[in-house]
Amino acid sequence: MKRRDFLKHTAIGAAGIGILGLPFSAEAAREGIRLTILHTNDQHSRIDPFPDDGRKYGGMGGMARRASLIKSIRQQEPNVLLLDSGDIWQGTPYFNFFEGELEYKLMTQMGYDAATLGNHDFDIGLEGLQKQLPLAGFPFLTANYDFSNTILKGRFQPYKVFEKQGIRVGIFGLGIELDGLVSKNMYGETLYLDPVEEARKMVQALREKEKCHYVICLSHLGYSYDTEKIDDRKLATQVSGIDLILGGHTHTFMEKPEVLRHENGHETMINQVGWSGLFLGRIDVTFSRKSKRRTDTRTAVLAVDNPVLTS
Amino acid sequence: MKCPYFKYLPGLAFLLSLAACQRPMHPATSLADTRLAVDHTQAVDPAVEALVAPYREEVTVKMSEVVGSAPVALGKGDYESPLGNFVVDLQLAQSEPIYGKPIDLSITTEGGLRVPLPAGNITTGHIFELMPFENEMVVLTLSGEAVQQLFNDAAARKITYIGNATYTVNKGKAQDIKIKGQPLDLHKTYTLLTSDYLAGGGDKLDMLKNPIKYEKLGLLLRDAIHQHIQQLTAAGKQVTAPAEKRVTILP
C-alpha cells in the first residue's frame, strides 16, 4: 500500500471511529478552528413543509423548522456560515402573490451570510429584483453576470471574504446561462460571462490578493450534464483552487459530497442538497490554529431523529 | 467512497492510533451524508412562524377566492376532452389580443393539465392545482409538414388537445385535417399557440422543437385560465366545455 493510500484509508477509519462515538467536538477543539458551513439550494419559495399527502418527502421542509435547526447549530458552533446557491424564488403561491418579499425576509431572519442568483431569481424581471433586494439582509454574489448595462449596475459583488477566528473564507458566485432559460424581457441586458474564466480570476483574487485560506463557490450551473454544457464537475476539474462548490439548479439529492482532484493535486468538494429546503447541508472544515491550513473536512451524519430542543 | 476495509475496522483503529502520532501529509476528508433532514422532528421557530403567519393567512384567503362556477365538472380524456377543449380555446381568447393577430392553432396535452375542474365553485386554488407550473404562452410558426406530424402524433398517442381544428382518426392515423375549416396545406406555414414547456420538447412533441419562428407572449398559462374564468363570471357566464365535436374516430 502506498503511503498516500494508507493515509486515505486511515481517514475512513477516523470517520468510522467518529461513528463509534468519539466526541467529535472535543476532538475538534483540540485540533484547531472549526468552520461550520450550512447550505441550501433551489428553495423555490417553499415556505411551508411539503403537504403530507403520501408524496415523496411529504411533510418535510419548512422555513420555521429550518430556522430552529440553524439556531441550534449556531448555539453549538462558533463559526457558522449559512449560504444559498440560488433559485430562492418560484414554486408556491407565496411567490405568485408576494413576489419574493417573504423569502428574502425569512432568509434575513435566519441570518443567511450570502447567496447567488439562480435563473428563477429573474422571474419577475430586473425591476422586480431591484424592488425586493433591499429586503435581503445578505449579499448576492455573482462573478459571471455583468449588470453594467442594466438598472442593477453596481448592486452585486463578485465575491465576499468572511473572517472567522483568523480564518479567511472567500466566497464567490456563478450563474447559469440565461438565454433559453429565462425570457429576454426578464433579464434584459444582463451579460453572461464564461464561468470557467471568471472562476479562475476569482480564485486568483481570493488566494493572492485576499489571502484566503478557504475558497467556496456558490454555483447555480448544475451538478452534471452529459453534454458540453459547463457544470460543477467540469468546473472542479477545469479550475484549480476552489475548495468547495455548493451547487444548485439540477435539484440533485447527493447522498454525500463528491471530491474531484485537479491534476495538480488540489481537491474540490461538490455538494448539493436537492431542493425546497427539505434538507440542510452541513460541512465542517477544521483549520490548524497555527498554520491556518485546512486539516480536516467532515461531512458527518448528524441525525435529526429527535426533536431539537431550543430555548 | 467504496471501502472494503470496513471489516478491518478494529485493525484500522489501531493503525490510526499510530498515524495520529504523525503529522498528516494530506488533509483528511471524510465523506458521509451531509444532509440534515428538515422534518417534523424539528421544532418550529416562533419568530419565523410569526413572520409567515399573516402571509399564510393571505395566501389561504386568496386561494379560496371563488373565481367562477361550473354546472358540471370538466374532465380529461383521449383525443379531446371538455377540459382540453376549454383550455385550448381560452388560450386563443387570452393570447390573440396580446399577439395582435389571429393564431391558426392552439394546443395543450393531457398531462399538462394536472387535475379536472370540479362542478360548483371554482377557486384560485383549483386553478393552481390545474396548472401549478409557470408555463408561459408562446406562438410558434411551423411548416405544414410539422403541423401534419403534430396531427399524426395526436391521432397515434391521443394526448394532444387541438383548438381551431377538426380531424378524423382512422386506424391511428389523422385524416381530413381542417384548420379553421380549411384543409391542411403542406406548402403553407401555420402559427401555433402553446406553452413554452411543450414547445421546448415537453411530452415529446418533437415536431415543435425547431420552429420557423418562436415568440414569447409574457403571459402565464395559469394567468390566462384565471383571467378567462374571471371574464366569464363578469359576463354572467359559467365555465362550460365548448359543445362541438372536433375529433371523429372511425371504428
What's the gist of this structure?
The complex is a heterodimer of chains A (311) and B (251). By secondary structure, chain A is α/β, with parallel strands linked by helices.
By CATH, the architecture of chain A is named 4-Layer Sandwich
Report the mean per-residue pLDDT of chain A as an integer. Answer: 87
Proper CATH architecture of chain B: Alpha-Beta Complex
> Ranges of chain B with pLDDT <50 over ≥5 residues?
1-26
Give the H and E element order of chain B: HEEHEHEEHEHEEEEEHEHE
Spell out the CATH superfamily of chain A: Metallo-dependent phosphatases
Shape of chain A: globular
The CATH topology of chain B comes to 5'-nucleotidase,  domain 2
Question: Which protein chains make the most extensive interface, counting residues with beta carbons within 8 Å of the other chain's beta carbons?
Answer: A-B, 79 and 49 residues
Strand order of the largest sheet of chain B: 7-4-11-6-12
Biggest pleated-sheet summary of chain B: 5 strands, mixed
GO molecular function, one term (chain A): metal ion binding
Pfam family, one (chain A): Metallophos
Family (chain A): Belongs to the 5'-nucleotidase family.
Domain Calcineurin-like phosphoesterase (chain A): 35-252
Descriptive account of the structure:
The complex is a heterodimer of chains A (about 300) and B (about 250). With about 300 residues, chain A is α/β, with parallel strands linked by helices. Helix content of chain A is about 30%, strand content about 20%. Chain A has a single domain, classed as Metallo-dependent phosphatases (Purple Acid Phosphatase, chain A, domain 2, 4-Layer Sandwich), CATH 3.60.21.10. The longest helix of chain A is centred in the first third of the chain and has 18 residues, at about 5-20. Chain A is globular. The N and C termini of chain A lie far apart (about 50 Å). With about 250 residues, chain B is an alpha+beta fold. Chain B has a single domain (about 65-250), classed as 5'-Nucleotidase, C-terminal domain (5'-nucleotidase,  domain 2). In chain B, about 35% of the residues lie in helices and about 25% in strands. Chain B is built from seven helices and 13 strands. Chain B has helices spanning about 10-20, 45-65, 80-100, 125-130, 145-155, 195-200, 220-235, and strands spanning about 30, 35, 65-70, 105-110, 120-125, 135-145, 160-165, 165-170, 175-180, 180-185, 190-195, 215-220, 245-250. The longest helix of chain B is centred in the N-terminal third of the chain and has 18 residues, at about 45-65. The radius of gyration of chain B is 27 Å and the shape is globular. Chain B starts with 8 loop residues before the first helix and ends with a strand. The chains are: A alpha/beta (about 300), B alpha+beta (about 250). Strand 13 of chain A pairs parallel with strand 1 of chain B. Chain B: GO terms for molecular function: hydrolase activity. Chain B: Keywords: Signal. Chain B: This is 5'-nucleotidase, C-terminal domain.
